[in-house]
Design brief:
Largest sheet: 5 strands, parallel
Strand order of the largest sheet: 3-2-1-4-5
Structural class: alpha/beta
Number of helices: 10
Radius of gyration: 24 Å
Shape: elongated
Order of helices and strands: HHHHEHEHEEHEEHHEHE
């Protein structure tokens, strides 16, 4: 039996002195975390929640985030095509009402109004609501009304008895659930969506597949073997530990996917509950081709937009 080893296996190959330095840094981090915990302990639960909400909403007042989302052409096109698909039915019905949760710059609200929604409630809690109001006014559509509500989705009040036909939201984050915005969308659904109403998107699937990515490996690990003609391969174990410590959000080479993807989560947005989001489990089994190397796992999601499809 091997002797017990308390060192971090990710740092194997480093000198004891360097491991001690890393351990000291971890100690400082743990000390700082305890300070934060003591500070938070002095705050009420409501105050802590309010502070979290303020930080979250402040991040969405940053225009860079919205610019990145609006330049994500496949995502924008998916919503545009879905709204265009449902538009004729909305126009035929004549009195369709839509709630756009997390409206941001107002893109989905304006598209909904242009394609047949008689009334759109645009919900945006960040400071961007001021500009969302100006954008929706500048792009007003005859026969349709857009009202901007500068409130958290959970605090939206449409009036007693009011129900809507459609709830639309661009809530998806990295690994589908990262931004934790979906509970806010579900709160609007539960209070205001008519029975038989439409959720856009309506279903979401999260996939996982094994990945070999030689280009990434060379750029992050192989790089250290020759830096301006100097062998720095002693740093490879540290580079390995740090580069693989956190998940990454980036495109991966399609030819690097080593096996068919496994679906690890399937959500029906008409019936999903908060509990479905807090924890989920999936069994995965992959057979890797001979001669291939497992560098990690790639994950991605796709969405269905009602009868408009995936």
């Amino acid at each position: 039996m091997d002797d017990p080893d308390d060192t971090d296996p990710g740092l194997a190959g480093l000198s004891p002195e360097f491991q001690a330095m890393i351990g000291g840094m971890a100690g400082h981090t743990a000390h700082f975390q305890k300070l934060l915990e003591r500070r938070m302990a002095n705050m009420s639960k409501d105050a802590a929640q309010k502070k979290d909400d303020e930080d979250y909403l402040e991040s969405y007042a940053d225009l860079d985030i919205h610019e990145d989302m609006l330049k994500d052409q496949p995502r924008v096109d998916a919503y545009r095509k879905a709204i265009e698909f449902h538009g004729p039915a909305w126009k035929s019905q004549g009195d369709v009402s839509v709630v756009d949760v997390g409206s941001g710059t107002g893109l989905l609200a304006v598209l909904s109004a242009r394609h047949g929604a008689a009334r759109v409630e645009a919900v945006e809690a960040s400071r961007l609501a001021h500009f969302c109001r100006q954008i929706t006014e500048a792009n007003a559509t005859a026969g349709s009304k857009i009202e901007v509500h500068e409130v958290r989705a959970e605090e939206l009040e449409l009036g007693e008895g009011r129900k809507v036909d459609v709830v639309v939201s661009e809530w998806m984050g990295y690994f589908l659930l990262f931004e934790n915005m979906l509970p806010s969308v579900l709160s609007v659904r539960d209070r205001y969506l008519k029975e038989g109403g439409l959720m856009l998107p309506s279903k979401c699937r999260l996939h996982l597949a094994p990945l070999q990515d030689g280009q990434w490996r060379d750029s992050k690990l192989g790089f250290w073997r020759n830096v301006a003609g100097i062998d720095m391969s002693a740093l490879v174990p540290l580079a390995t530990a740090t580069a693989c410590e956190k998940p990454q959000h980036r495109q991966v080479p399609a030819d690097g996917v080593l096996a068919p993807a496994t679906e690890i989560l399937n959500l029906d947005l008409h019936t999903a509950k908060d509990a479905d989001l807090r924890r989920f489990e999936a069994s995965v089994k992959f057979e890797l081709p001979a001669g291939k190397r497992l560098d990690g796992f790639a994950s991605w999601f796709d969405c269905e937009f009602g009868e408009a499809g995936w």
